[in-house]
């Protein structure tokens, strides 16, 4: 049942990164289900502007640019637009100042709610047994406070907090015959310890393309410019006959082109990185590989089938949530230029188990 709210125009501040924007967008979708008359405005970095414009529940997108003059123009524009409440999901000093300036002099809890990340002081085995909200639920807490939704989640249907990207037309890949599989070989230049070994990715690619059930399949390598070395190494590791069925898209597509590509795939495989969460948001069947980061906290959410693989339980250190592994294993991946040793958690996600998960995901369709 829909309800009314005194808030007419709500500004949501979440600049990045891609996975966080997608997880936070689930709140806009859930809020719209209950208060459809509320106009939701979203502030983000220019790189995510086109992505935010396709988020389910968002009415208008604003771009944030650095500099005092740009900030002043933005504040004037928000005031002229009639923004009467703010949910600040990016609680930096700069964004606190922006929210206060937009709402002045109505800067109180009836007009402003700020995100407070749920933090735990434990890692590894202790973290896995602790109760922790998923990021989608964590981002939704300030919305609940601002709109007095103390009855969450009982008032919402199951699965309401799922990101969804609105794509206006069907993916062009759907016109291609055979199975379409996307592999995300890297995780970008930051937090490189989240990456699956490139040698593993090459072995999985060979297994998939050589499978009797997938002899008509095409493999798409998806990622940014930082993933070109890994994608090239995968291509070079394949025999020419298999390489002919691989299309390397790393560094060639923008976010929306990537979204269309992923939406047209029968299966996507990736670690904890933006395109993996993007695949979940467009409903693609997904096999996600998580090691140092907590799948309980930031695992992909979406309307399509998702299989999340984590390291064996006897490896007590995961998840550590650290940017660099403190106990790395000897490097299994000579083609990876980001680190000299392989995190034990990612090395423990073996090719056989990943291939079995891929087969399971494909059979579910």
Q: Taking all residues together, what is the mean pLDDT?
A: 89
Q: Report the portion of residues in β strands.
A: 5-15%
Order of helices and strands: EHEHEHEHEHHEHEHHEHEHEHEEEHH
Q: What share of residues is helical?
A: 25-40%
- Using only C-alpha atoms, the radius of gyration works out to 21 Å
Explain what this protein looks like in three dimensions:
There is one protein chain. The protein has 14 helices and 13 strands. The protein has helices spanning 18-34, 49-52, 68-81, 93-103, 124-129, 135-146, 198-210, 228-237, 240-243, 255-263, 274-281, 295-298, 344-347, 351-363; strands at residues 9-13, 39-44, 60-63, 85-88, 112-114, 180-183, 218-221, 246-248, 267-271, 286-289, 306-309, 329-330, 341-342. The strands form three sheets. The chain has a six-stranded parallel β-sheet with strand order 8-7-6-9-10-11, sandwiched between helices. A five-stranded parallel β-sheet has the order 3-2-1-4-5, with helices on both faces. Helix 1 (18-34) packs parallel to helix 11 (274-281), helix 3 (68-81) runs parallel beside helix 4 (93-103) and helix 7 packs across helix 8.
Quick recap:
This protein is of the alpha/beta class and 365 residues long.
Task: Give keywords.
13 strands, six-stranded parallel β-sheet, 14% strand, alpha/beta
Write the layout of secondary structure elements.
Blueprint: E1 9-13, H1 18-34, E2 39-44, H2 49-52, E3 60-63, H3 68-81, E4 85-88, H4 93-103, E5 112-114, H5 124-129, H6 135-146, E6 180-183, H7 198-210, E7 218-221, H8 228-237, H9 240-243, E8 246-248, H10 255-263, E9 267-271, H11 274-281, E10 286-289, H12 295-298, E11 306-309, E12 329-330, E13 341-342, H13 344-347, H14 351-363
Parallel strand pairs: 1-2, 1-4, 2-3, 4-5, 6-7, 6-9, 7-8, 9-10, 10-11
Antiparallel strand pairs: 12-13
Helix pairs in contact: 1-6, 1-11, 3-4, 7-8, 7-14
């Amino acid at each position: 049942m829909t309800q009314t709210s005194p808030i007419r125009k709500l500004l949501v501040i979440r600049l990045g990164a891609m996975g966080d924007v997608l997880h936070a967008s689930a709140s806009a979708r859930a809020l719209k289900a209950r208060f459809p008359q509320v106009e939701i405005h979203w502030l983000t970095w220019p790189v995510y502007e086109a992505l935010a414009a396709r988020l389910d529940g968002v009415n208008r997108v604003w771009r944030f640019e650095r500099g005092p003059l740009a900030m002043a123009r933005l504040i004037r524009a928000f005031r002229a637009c009639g923004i009467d409440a703010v949910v600040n999901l990016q609680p930096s000093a700069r964004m606190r100042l922006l929210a206060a300036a937009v709402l002045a002099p109505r800067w109180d809890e009836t007009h402003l709610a700020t995100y407070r990340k749920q933090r735990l002081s434990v890692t590894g085995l202790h973290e896995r047994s602790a109760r922790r909200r998923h990021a989608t639920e964590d981002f939704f807490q300030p919305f609940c406070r601002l709109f007095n939704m103390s009855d969450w989640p009982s008032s919402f249907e199951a699965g309401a907090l799922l990101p969804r990207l609105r794509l206006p037309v069907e993916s062009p890949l759907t016109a291609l015959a055979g199975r379409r599989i996307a592999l995300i070989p890297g995780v970008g230049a930051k937090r490189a310890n989240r990456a699956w070994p490139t040698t593993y990715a090459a072995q999985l690619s060979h297994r998939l393309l050589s499978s009797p059930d997938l002899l008509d399949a095409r493999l798409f390598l998806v990622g940014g410019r930082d993933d070109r070395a890994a994608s090239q190494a995968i291509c070079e590791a394949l025999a020419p006959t298999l390489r002919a069925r691989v299309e390397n898209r790393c560094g060639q597509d923008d976010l929306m082109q990537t979204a269309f590509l992923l939406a047209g795939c029968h299966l996507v495989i990736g670690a904890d990185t933006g395109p993996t969460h993007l695949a979940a948001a467009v409903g693609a069947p997904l096999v996600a590989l998580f090691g140092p980061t907590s799948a309980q906290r930031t695992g992909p959410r979406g309307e399509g089938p998702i299989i999340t693989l984590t390291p064996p339980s006897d490896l007590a250190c995961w998840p550590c949530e650290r940017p660099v592994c403190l106990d790395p294993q000897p490097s299994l991946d000579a083609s990876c230029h980001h680190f000299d040793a392989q995190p034990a958690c990612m090395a423990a996600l073996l090719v056989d188990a990943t291939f079995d998960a891929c087969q399971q995901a494909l059979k579910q369709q």
